[in-house]
Write a structure and sequence with these properties.
Elements (H helix, E strand, L loop, with lengths): L14 H4 L4 H6 L22 E2 L29 H4 L5 H17 L4 E2 L23 H16 L4 E7 L12 E3 L2 H17 L5 E4 L3 E2 L2 E2 L4 H11 L5 E4 L7 H6 L12 H11 L5 H23 L8 H15 L1 E5 L11 E5 L24 H4 L6 E6 L10 H12 L3 E7 L18 H13 L3 E6 L14 E4 L7 H10 L12 E2 L17 E3 L8 H6 L4 E3 L10 E9 L2 E8 L5 E11 L10 E10 L4 E7 L6 E4 L4 E4 L2 E10 L2 E10 L14 H5 L7 H8 L29 H19 L3 H12 L3 H6 L7 H11 L3 H19 L1
Parallel strand pairs: 1-2, 2-3, 3-5, 4-6, 4-16, 5-8, 10-11, 10-12, 12-13, 13-14
Antiparallel strand pairs: 6-7, 9-14, 15-17, 18-19, 19-22, 20-21, 20-25, 23-24, 25-26
Helix pairs in contact: 4-5, 5-6, 11-15, 13-14, 19-20, 22-23
The structure holds beta-D-glucopyranose.
Length: 815
């Protein structure tokens, strides 16, 4: 029998209720009542609570429910997405967004807001990067903690997701992430640690994928040893929707809530496991206790009179302010920006007519208001002489549109060109296939450049793109995905009413081939190997000396800043910052730390603090950035602990990761931990040239063999195999189903229905068989699924018989 470690058993807060509950009642709480709500039990006054997406606006569905953003939700403010707000580097702003999100959640009677999403941007192509903050864990953690504080200030709960190592969308429900312990801790868990310890999040969502061979939701090391024991997390772990694999193993690892409903099927598995003596009942009691705490504390706000509406205009205005602080000016030659008064502007680009302002999937918000550039142009100071779309949104070539755009551009002093990625390209459940913007937009840019080189591009997309065309623009404002009020915010920056102050929270490589995970992304079959280890983003480019288009932390302003007088002591660093230009502005000063000893390999430098400072022209302010528990630490795989290496450390203050303005050095005493590595076995890790590491060296880092990465095509398909694997199935019917799905996908793409094609990839192609039972609310249960698998594996008649018998049983019980 599996027992709870007695030394770690905490006394139950709600023992008076739990003692009176039957096992059945307790187990009934362990999965949803429906798609979005938890189960209630009237006789104990336990009400159900509502969980809703999402990270940049509430997506509360009242009627048809889905986790893919298909059906409309109640209107809510669509704030800029996390990738956008990350560029503000402003934790106070993050908290403010959180407060506004929280207010809307309360108005819609949502108890748990499913965000923020805080996975690391391991690779620029991850389809959900637009929903995540950064490639840096410290930056992400701080922004996340601020959102959480804001959301939870209303008494409800935030829910950080997806815990953990969910860094690709391809096969996200079954991929096995192979990563070494140090990288896991330093890169992929640090943001969660900050969200738990500093943000005090009440809920964590486990991810769909596996970590080193076990589903994260069942991974004792991750869920108990790290999350509960080390970080002291006392809140609730909810599965990602349909992400539960083995319910009992999940419970043992500390998973309180499985979502959505399984119509009681998995609750029964818990009951059986306890009754059969497989697990101790205390696992269930512990989970019930924590879930009750979440229910009781997050419903308090609704037990008193609460505001059931919010000021739509005020929230819209806040969304605009956030956008203003989050966009990044990437290029500004000949001082083309801000636009001088009286310049004649031609507005070109389909995105000016139909804004590109958020991503696709579960985070999709039904905005209360949606502004497009063309609608708000008249209210700006811009003298617009006309508009031409110039290109088709979804990539189709159209030379007529280019001709018309060029004819307009000829008559303008400056061309404002709205370009970027469409919403079908950046979507949950699917990774991008390259880092390019569509060819039809690039053709347009080249054609306009021939007739008028004074081009200012406004880029809309939620992730890094290649910019081989950058010489053709004089100004480049990266608007990212700036929410429902983004259009006005862009115009305010272009005209100089707002001085841009965003800086990139991710690196922009020159070519995709330059990226550290290029050879290891995405994992296509069983697993994905994080061979580059900690060298993601600037950690790699900096250490391996790989040139980038724009470095992490980069962004321009209409003014200039001077850094001086650095002083370092054990507590932190102080320096002076002066606005040396003629307009007021905000500067983001960044603290990087580099260890000068070569004993333990590390990135050349790592972000350990930052401050955003407002300065009037000529003004100087003293800035202090304190050190904290993360400034010098590294994870030692020998002592299995965070340690500090005795060494001299460079203390670097930068305007970006590549623009270090001040440097000092400090000697730090170490913790005398044993040397964790044999240097000679890890040459690439010591050199930082980590983009093409062979399997032997990766295994030396891992300390074990890597598991087979390819499917074993000879064995029958099981619960965790995906529909995509039907191509190798024994059953002709399965191979036919596979062919039909791939044909439908190809055909839909061909006729331009890319969003629907994506949906097939997201919800069918990469779905493990078990997902059929987990996502159908009990219509198909596991015994019926066994029948389906028999058919897939070549036993058609036996399978169909089994399926029908089980269906009959199910209908009888349901009656
Ligand atoms: C997503 C989560 C989301 C959930 C509910 C899942 O597919 O991965 O981020 O919160 O659906 O919509």
């Amino acid at each position: 029998m599996k027992k709870l470690d007695e030394t770690k058993i905490k006394s139950l807060r709600y023992s008076d209720i739990i003692e009176k509950m039957t096992i059945e009642e307790k187990a009934s709480l362990m999965s949803g009542k429906d798609f979005w709500q938890t189960q209630d039990i009237e006789r104990f006054g336990i009400n159900n609570i509502f969980l809703a997406d999402g990270p940049h606006g509430i997506r509360k569905q009242m009627a048809a429910a889905d986790h893919l953003g298909l059906n409309e939700s109640t209107p809510a403010t669509c704030f800029p997405t996390a990738a956008t707000v990350a560029n503000s580097w402003n934790v106070e702003l993050g908290e403010k967004i959180g407060e506004y999100l929280g207010e809307e959640a309360v108005a819609q009677k949502v108890n748990v807001l499913l965000g923020p999403g805080i996975n690391m941007k391991r690779d620029p192509l991850c389809g959900r990067n637009f929903e995540y903050f950064s490639e840096d864990p410290y930056h992400t953690g701080k922004m996340a903690a601020s959102y959480i504080k804001g959301i939870q200030s209303h008494g409800i709960s935030a829910c950080v997701k997806h815990f953990a190592v969910n860094n690709q969308e391809e096969r996200r429900m079954s991929i096995d992430t192979i990563v070494d312990e140090r990288t896991l801790r330093e890169i992929y868990l640090t943001a969660f640690e900050i969200a738990v310890k500093e943000g005090q999040t009440k809920t964590v969502m486990s991810s769909y994928n596996m970590l080193n061979g076990e589903y994260t939701n069942e991974n004792i090391h991750l869920m108990r040893e790290i999350l509960r024991d080390e970080w002291d997390f006392d809140g609730v772990v909810v599965t990602d929707w349909g992400g539960s694999n083995d319910r009992v193993a999940g419970l043992v690892a500390g998973n309180e809530l499985e979502m959505p409903t399984t119509a009681g099927e998995t609750n029964q598995e818990i009951i059986d496991a306890i009754k059969n003596g497989k697990i101790e009942e205390h696992f269930l009691d512990e989970a019930v206790d924590r879930l009750l705490h979440l229910i009781f504390t997050t419903e308090e706000v609704f037990n008193k009179p609460y505001k059931q509406s919010f000021d739509v205009m005020e929230h819209h205005q806040v969304a605009q302010e956030v956008a203003e602080e989050s966009m990044v000016l990437l290029k500004n030659v000949d001082q083309i920006l801000p636009l001088k008064s009286g310049v004649k502007v031609a507005t070109i680009g389909q995105f000016a007519e139909e804004a590109r302002y958020q991503g696709a999937g579960s985070s999709i918000v039904n905005p209360t208001i949606l502004e497009n550039t063309l609608e708000v142009l008249a209210d700006s100071r811009i003298e617009n002489i006309g508009y031409e779309p110039g290109f088709e949104r979804y990539g189709k070539k159209n030379s007529k549109k280019i001709e018309k755009a060029c004819a307009l551009a000829k008559n303008a002093d400056v061309v404002l060109l709205y370009i970027g990625l469409d919403e079908a390209t950046e979507a949950e459940g699917l990774d991008r296939s390259d880092m390019k913007i569509p060819e039809n937009q690039i053709e347009l840019l080249h054609a306009i450049h021939k007739v008028n080189p004074n081009i200012v591009a406004v880029l809309s997309c939620g992730a890094a793109v290649e910019m081989p065309w950058i010489d053709k623009v004089k100004g480049l404002l990266h608007g990212y995905l700036n929410g429902q009020a983004g259009a006005k915010a862009v115009l305010k920056i272009l005209t100089g009413e707002v001085n841009p102050s965003g800086k990139l929270a991710e690196s922009y490589p020159i070519r995709y081939e330059d990226t550290p995970a290029f050879y290891q992304f995405p994992g296509k079959e069983v697993s994905v190997e994080y061979r580059e280890a900690m060298y993601i983003g600037y950690r790699y480019y900096d250490t391996a000396n790989v040139e980038v288009r724009f470095p992490f932390g980069y962004g321009l302003s209409y003014t200039t800043f001077d850094y001086s007088d650095i002083q370092v002591n054990k507590e932190g660093v102080t320096f002076n910052l002066t606005n040396t230009g003629s307009v007021a502005g905000m500067e983001i000063a960044q603290l990087y730390v580099g260890c000068q000893s070569g004993e333990i390999f590390r990135p050349a430098k790592e972000l350990k603090g930052f401050k955003k400072v407002f300065l009037n022209p000529g003004e100087t302010k003293a800035v202090a950035i304190p050190f904290d528990d993360k400034t010098f630490r590294y994870y030692n795989v020998k002592s299995d602990n965070w340690e500090i290496e005795e060494a001299d450390y460079s203390i670097l203050i930068g305007a970006s990761s590549a623009d270090i303005r001040l440097r000092e050095q400090i000697y730090i005493e170490g913790t005398n931990a044993p040397a964790p590595y044999e240097k000679s076995k890890l040459p690439s890790y010591y050199s930082g040239k980590a983009n093409k590491i062979n399997v032997e060296e990766f295994e030396a880092l891992l300390g074990r063999k890597v598991p087979p990465a390819k499917w074993d095509r000879s064995r029958p398909l099981g619960y965790n195999d995906t529909i995509a694997q039907c191509q190798y199935a024994k059953g002709a019917i399965a191979r036919f189903a596979y062919k039909s799905i791939t044909f439908a996908h190809w055909f839909l793409k061909k006729i331009g229905k890319r969003s629907t094609a994506n949906l097939i990839m997201m919800s069918v192609y990469h779905m493990p068989f078990r997902g059929i039972a987990r996502m159908t609310g009990g219509i198909i249960n596991m015994p019926m699924l066994d029948g389906i698998l028999m058919m897939v594996n070549g036993q058609f008649f036996k399978g169909i018989g089994h399926f029908l018998r089980e269906r009959k049983k199910f209908v009888k019980i349901a009656k």
